[in-house]
Recover the amino acids of this structure.
């Protein structure tokens, strides 16, 4: 998706049609469309030819995009969980692993990267009732595996706003919620993790539309991606005109939520009341 979005940006900047781009790699305009949407794999020769057509001559920029194109064709660790990962979520798992900054707002649940095992299990069981116990445990294992990125040598910066409602709602029972809140207190101490709480007293705020995740990537030349999850599908937005609106919403949420220095105290108060 990232490589495709960048190829689209480069093509549009040069005023080149999909038809002309397709002709340059001996393909149809529909293949260019699929490439730009991240719906088909990349051949190194095709990407190299397109970069030349789009006037990309800088060796560093070419090497970055060619490397990413090669990586896009390699299966990630999460593909071993393909039996329990819906197609619309598979792309997000790859983006999450590649991001250097992950910002988000959650209104109903504690975000997946911050969940304890028991809390994750309780949330997953709220899903479709036709899931077997084995499928539930596979999804729990996947969620726990995702969290390793917070403890790797070069972790992403995680900045999360959690609505107070998500912390007051008893998911999995009192013991599970208490353990979850204690876990959040511990995670908030990590230097690369920032947790803010949107209190009830804040009233209406820009996040009323629902949860938001924004991912930023280290290459710099690649666009930010806004991920919006729905009941049985998701949206991936990468156009600047779209992502800037969500950055604006997220920035307002950070301002209106309690400041990070108050997080531990607020969590301890909620813990005492749970």
């Amino acid at each position: 998706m990232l490589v495709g979005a960048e190829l689209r940006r480069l093509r549009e900047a040069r005023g080149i049609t999909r038809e002309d781009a397709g002709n340059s790699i001996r393909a149809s305009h529909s293949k260019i469309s699929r490439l730009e949407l991240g719906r088909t794999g990349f051949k190194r020769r095709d990407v190299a030819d397109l970069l030349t057509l789009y006037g990309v001559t800088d060796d560093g920029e070419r090497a970055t995009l060619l490397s990413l194109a090669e990586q896009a064709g390699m299966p990630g660790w999460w593909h071993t969980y393909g039996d329990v990962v819906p197609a619309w979520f598979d792309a997000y798992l790859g983006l999450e692993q590649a991001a250097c900054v992950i910002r988000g707002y959650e209104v109903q649940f504690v975000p997946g990267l911050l969940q304890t095992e028991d809390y994750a299990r309780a949330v997953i069981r709220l899903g479709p009732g036709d899931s077997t116990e084995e499928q539930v445990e596979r999804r729990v294992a996947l969620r726990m595996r995702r969290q390793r990125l917070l403890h790797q040598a070069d972790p992403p910066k995680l900045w999360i706003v959690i609505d107070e409602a998500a912390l007051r709602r008893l998911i999995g029972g009192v013991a599970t919620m208490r353990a979850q809140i204690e876990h959040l207190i511990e995670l908030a101490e990590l230097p690369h993790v920032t947790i803010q709480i949107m209190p009830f007293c804040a009233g209406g705020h820009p996040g009323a539309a629902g949860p938001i995740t924004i991912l930023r990537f280290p290459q710099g030349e690649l666009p930010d991606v806004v991920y919006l999850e729905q009941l049985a599908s998701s949206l991936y937005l990468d156009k600047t005109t779209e992502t800037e609106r969500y950055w604006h919403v997220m920035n307002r949420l950070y301002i209106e939520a309690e400041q990070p220095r108050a997080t531990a105290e607020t969590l301890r108060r909620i813990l005492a009341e749970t």
